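Fold this sequence, please.
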Amino acid sequence: MDEVGLKKSRAGFRELLANWLPALMMMGLIFWTSSQSVLPGPSDKGYDFIFKKFAHLCVYSAIALSYLRGVHAARRPFLLAFLLTVLWAISDEYHQSMTPLREPTLRDVLIDATGGGAMLWLARRAIFSGRGAVRAAARSVIGMES
């Protein structure tokens, strides 16, 4: 490989890493959290439930956006990011089935899909309907040129 080809290859790897590193970090965080038998939370069961379900919404919103950054150049990036989010939610619940004191639930997958879907809907609106700074910021977050 000549010097120009090597530089292009390195630049391509750096771009690939920059696009996928947020998703990989989120996946690692979710995997680690799912490995914990007991998670901290409010002592009241009702508040604990709300706290943890809200955490699901937030975390899966973030992972959906990070997947969108990774697949932004694909033919249907929003659909692909959503499918990856749902697949990760399913695999997370499966992983929890092997963690002591944890149990998988379809409800959590649905909450995760809702959080991811809502974020992708907002991102799509910001990118295609937003104006000025909102549009530029949304495009920048997912790695699209302004």
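The chain has five helices and no strands. Residues 3-34 form the longest helix (32 residues).
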